[in-house]
Amino acid sequence: MVLNIRTFANQKPCSFFKALGHPMIATRLDALKKNPLPSLYDPEGHLEDFLAMTRLLAPSHVYVQAVEALKPNTSLISTIQKDNPQKLLILSFDPEKHLDQMKHLLPPSCEVTSLKDLRLPDEMLTDTKTYLSDLNFSTNFAFFREEDGWHTRIKTANCWAKYGSNDTKLWAILFDDKGRPLAEWEEPLSPTVHSVIIDSRDVKKQFNLPDFTGQLFLHITGTKGHSIVKYALDTFHDEGMLSATHDANAWPPAYFAGLPAPRGGEKVVLWLQNSHPLPIPANGVSLNLMGDSKAVFLNQDIPPFGTYALDVETYFPTARWPQQIELQAGHYFVRPRYEVINEKGYRCIAHVNVERSDLKPDPKLKDIKDLLGKGFILPAPLFPTNDYITSVLPTPMSRELRSMPLRALIYDREGQLKETYSFGNLPRHHQSALIINDLVQLGQEYGHVELVYDFDKGSEADGWLHGLFRYEHKTLPGQAETSFGSHIFNTAITYKNEPQSYKGPPPGLSTGLFLRIDDDIETFCHLIYPVSILWHETSNTTLILYTKEGHPIAEASLKVPQSGSRLWIYQETFSPTDREKARGGYVVIQDKTCRLFGYHGLRRRNGSFSLDHMFGF
User: Fold this and answer.
1) d(CA 448, CA 299)
2) What topology is assigned to 8-123 in CATH?
3) pTM
4) Domain spans of the chain?
5) Dihedrals phi, psi of 26, to nearest 5 degrees
6) 3-state class (DSSP) for residue 99
7) HSE-up of 174 (CA within 13 Å, CB side)?
8) Using CA atoms, how far apart are residues 543 and 430, in angstroms rounded to an integer?
9) Could you report the per-residue pLDDT of 527-538, keeping only the tens digit for each?
10) CA nearest 199: which of 191, 190, 209?
11) What is the largest CA-CA distance in the chain?
């Protein structure tokens, strides 16, 4: 059963499902659902979303305002007088503006209600005049675990202070795996760009909780500039294991892809976390091998805000890496995490990606390849080949894509092209993972790899090129993986919305990245300088160290060569004195000359390490 709601329309966020599904109004929503619907007026076009989120049946009388919104089961609001309804529900959180237009058409005895009783309190709103403003719903979910020696830590910063927000507040609700609220709290945020840290150990201690694996709902109020809640999420174990992932998309799409099948001796667990205050029914979501239309349904209910650990091998007993799996998610989940448990018992956590159903191949990309140079680039680190194995798995991320003509370009740290590998024109159901070590040996040096389109092998490209990158220590148990999508980098011309900018319209030709740091574990950052067309010979990068309160205390300079990379270590870059002052702080990576792409990680001497890509700041 697909949840028929709009979550992302025309590349813009939708807020109605967030407003109706907000955990803080769940009890009031349940009360509304206990009675049959009266006659209903839908002036804003929310009827389908409302019925899906409440699972109520449409009443016999549904009125609309727009003539173009008329359907066989609806009437224009101008005809309401002849129907003489006794009750009318206006599907709006801001009903006054609609009542001003049509109240005189209602019979005197008609009882009018609306969604106004489901509003959050005004103290949680940035825009009290437009309730569904996306700034009123700066929300997200996070995988959150404190169990069997495993811990999680969210780290971000109050970036909204840069846009003039001076009254931001964090609201949080922790749910266990059954969707039961374990803890709820709020805390004001300083009106400066400062660190925000939520550690599962602290939450457990503060609220005297049992062990838990569930999800944390986050709502930042008072936001300005944008409504995106980004964070880095570290998972770690008492025995030393490290892993990292990051923020989920704050909206639940219809499809995800990029879930890897296990290798022999491995276990892959997909963490499905319900993002709504209504249960997911058995057979409500399904999975299939990439390129195979045969679906396997999840024969399990998931309660509201609940968590379910799905063992991939249970549903696909013969599937093996590098096969990959699609999730027909039915709009129930923000981006799910998955956990790979290798044969040595090491666990690493990553996420699947949104698989778009609105994107078709763009034949013009091949026609303009000479204008765009390398065009779309997906860059990722290449670890020292003496100690690590780096694998690349291209992942189709559009429902329309049938094949992918791809090349891998392998560079050393100075930007010298060491090797080129053509995947050919990969079919959608391909099982082609590339082990970079089979092509290049860099010894103890590092570099990076770029995935690009290979129009000599095919023409089907959509600009939504994705890949999964896996890193394994050769002799120790450590393992990590990350995935991302491609962009056009460092060219003054634009194509559609590329090169994307961290802030403002394209072209994005500057860098602003957030690096979370660990006070006691080696923190590293791998910065890559990809170029679609020739750009500046080197970057002019500044690393700015901030205290927890958001005060800059030290800077360092970095030059990254064009098409090259630099792996720098926090503890080696800043002095012990400055690091002590910055405990709990962060680093901002700035460059006004080019757009860099970055990955962050933690590393221990026992071979444990984490890796994930960074986010714009």
Assistant:
1) 42
2) Rossmann fold (3.40.50)
3) 0.95
4) 8-123, 133-351, 364-616
5) -60, -40
6) helix
7) 26
8) 41
9) 999 999 999 999
10) 209
11) 84
